[in-house]
Each structure stands twice: as structure tokens, then as C-alpha cells.
Amino acid sequence: xxxxxxxxxxxxxxxxxTYYPEYSTFIYTKTRTIPDKSVVIINYDLVWRRPELxxxxxxxxxxxxxxxIKNSTSNRTKFILKLNPSNVILxxxxxxxxxxxxxxxxxxxxxxKISKKLYWQQFINSISIDIGGFKVPKVNGYKNVDRLKQKxxxxxxxxxxxxxxxxxxxxxxxxxxIDNTKEYKKFKKDRxxxxxxxxxxxxxxxxxxxxxxxxxxQYNLYxxxxxxxxxxxxxxxxxxFYNFTSEMEQIKSLCxxxxxxxxxxxxxxKDLESYKSKDNTxxxxxxxxxxMGLNLQxxxxxxxxxxxxxxELFEQSKKRTHxxxxxxxxxxxxxxxxxxxxxxxxxxxxxxxxxxxxxxxxLEG
Length: 365
Hints:
five-stranded parallel beta sheet
């Protein structure tokens, strides 16, 4: 039984139909009889709604992107941990996103019987901070890491870099610095500004960070101008990662003016028709919807119009083009507004850390 993202169902189906034709392979949606020697493929969002799957015996369970069960309180995680597979295969390039505290569900599935409390006591350094009257643990480091890695190896974990498994091409990162705006500087100083008839008020650390990100990106027309230059310089397929709907609308309008076909992957749409059929297509991908699971190796060019806050999304987004089937050097352009929050975010992501940790640091201060 293979559990994967919805976007990968067809890929796994075609893989097993091609290379393992002796098996009965099908995508599981509604309750049905499962014959012997079958490959059952189902997505994470549906699997926990199919309780009959808990009765399967002698099953090899494979999780594609196993980091999707790191939240121990989610329905999908609790359901998957109820399964009784004979064998378990967990696939992930970023099983923890650099956070060992998010590994407990996966090691439980691998057969390591250790309580979450004991796991934290042995391997996680944390402190308790007060947020609005609630005590929240904040991880500030790890301990006994060598012993943790050895225990993982004892339970079947194999640590390998992508380049050790596949012969993939070189990766080149190109930061492009964009002029800042007077609006950004004013808001950073005053925490309030009216722009395009919108009043932005950064009265909390969260809203301040949100509006600084937007002012450095969707409200910075210098960035759109630089994107125009980049798109005019190539007729190749280009992937653009973005965060906010307003960014997508701006970029889509720019592409229409440049007469470039557009494909869009976000929470409302997954349209890759132009990407598949036209060389000069621009693919707009919202991080949460497409940083994981998409195969976009027809392109070797990614432009980061704005950056995510999560290290896992950042690392996974690069793999959309740097994967099996890619023969060209993978190029990554980071559009970074000078003297802005974006510089700090990029530096944090390069350290494989989440930028949201900055909020905790401010609260502690």
C-alpha cells in the first residue's frame, strides 16, 4: 500500500503498471475488494477516511513524503499509526526539515517503541515560554544526536544525499538584489502605512512580519520590473514560486503582456497543460500547494519571487526541477529586496531553519 500526495497518485500508478505488471495496481477511492498480490495507492487526505484498510494483513506500507505524518495529532498520522504492516518504507528528502522534534511519528512507524515524552527527554533541549497565558515549549537545541542517528540506523534508516543516489546536474543559486521602497522604510519605522487605499497596521509581531514581507514583494514594483527582465531574457519554461495571491495576479498579468503562456498551481487550481505542451510557459506555484510532490523537470529554471518561512518548503521547492530526468544545470534566482526582511529570511533558510522561530525570539526578548 502506497500513501502519497494526491498529485502523485497517477505517477505511482503508472510506475507500477510499467515495471510491475504482474501486480493488480489501482488507485483506492471507494471501498472495494482487494485481491492478493495487489498494489493499493491512496492519498494522505483520503486514507484516514477508509477504516477498512486497518484490517489488511501482510502488507508492505510505503509513505511517499513521510514528513507529512510529523504532526502526531492529525487524523492522517493517528490512522497510519494504527495500521499493522509487515514492512515499512518511508521516503523523504526532508523527513524532519531539520527538526528532530518532528521525527517521533515516523520512528514509531519504523518500530522504535519509545514514548514521545521519553524521546524529548533524551534528544531534545527545550524551554517553556509564555504566549498569551499558555505555556509553549520552544526547542533550543538537540542532544545525544549520534545516539539518535544510530538508533535510527538500527531501525532501518538510511541517510544518503541525493547526489549519492542519482547522478543529477549541478545547482546554481543567483541572488538578485532589488531596490527597496520608501513605503517599506516608513512602515518599518512607524508600523503603520496606507498604500493603495489599504491601511497596514503592524500591531503584533506576526502582522508586522506579514506586512514587511508584502511591502518587500507585492508592493515593490521594482521587483516586478526585474522579473520582467528575467522573463524577457529566455524562451525556456520558467517556474516561479510565490506566497500571496496578489503576487500571482501581478505576475500573471505581466506574463499576459509578454505573451507567455501560464500554468498555475495553488489551492484553487492545478493547471499544467501549458507547461506540458509549450516551451515558453511560466508556471506559477504557491508554496503550500506545490513545493512538494510536483515533477517539473521539463524546466531547469526557478525564480523565487518571494520566500517561504519554512525551511522544508524551501528545500523541497528546489527538488521540483532537480530530480530524475533532469539533464541541465538547475538555476535558482532569488529576488531579494535590499535592506529588508527578505535578506534575513534567505540567510535563515540557508541554515535550514524556519524563519518563524524569530517570533519566539522576539517574544522572549
